[in-house]
Amino acid sequence: MDARNERPKITEIIVVEGKDDTVAIKRAVDADTIETNGSAVDDRVLAKVKLAQERRGVIVFTDPDFPGERIRTIIRQHVPECKHAFLPKSEALAKRKGSVGVEHASPIAIREALKHAHTEKRLKDVLIPLNDLIDAGLIAGVNARKRREQLGELLHIGYANGKQLQKRLQNVSNFKNGIYSSNGESI
Fold first, then answer.
1. Domain assignment of residue 150, yes or no
2. Which residues lie below 8 Å from residue 76, measured CB to CB, with a gap of 6+?
3. What is the pLDDT of residues 97-148, one digit of tens each?
4. Which of 10, 19, 26, 69 has the fewest Cβ atoms within 10 angstroms?
5. Do the beta carbons of residue 62 and residue 85 sit within 8 Å?
6. Calpha distance 31→25 (Å, rounded)
7. Is position 108 within any domain?
8. Total count of domains within the chain
9. Helix (H) or strand (E) holding 164
């Protein structure tokens, strides 16, 4: 079998939004999924996620849009030790409809996102000053949105607005080094 077409085994259970996402995941990897069936995540789904986390671990892999972020937030509040995988919006666009979702991503993009899944660890003593984000051009500037998108892809934390970015970066221990590309130039 061609290495590009191999379906690696994922031990953790992947939380997705719906059946089409499950189909896309299974094209890319050998894994089990839990479907939230939309952004109104109920207690039954949360109980499944909690049990899955205790037994095998969980990777939350939702669409890079507002409902996907809402689902991610609800799960993070109830089962904080889950891993999170982020798919860049550019990899999740439908070819015709203009919609965004995991179901539109290629198997290669899905494998790449899952490869970078990480556990978010709250560093309570670390507060990233808003001024650092402004100085880095990530908030309040002509290209701030684009720079946040680039940083989100570089750190595999997904796109975030300024306020969300400040919270997500608290989970990334090397923030100061993360805002520069590998050759030392600013993003």
1. yes
2. 60, 82, 84, 120
3. 778 889 999 999 999 999 989 887 665 555 678 888 888 888 888 898 888 8
4. 19
5. no
6. 7
7. yes
8. 2
9. helix 162-169
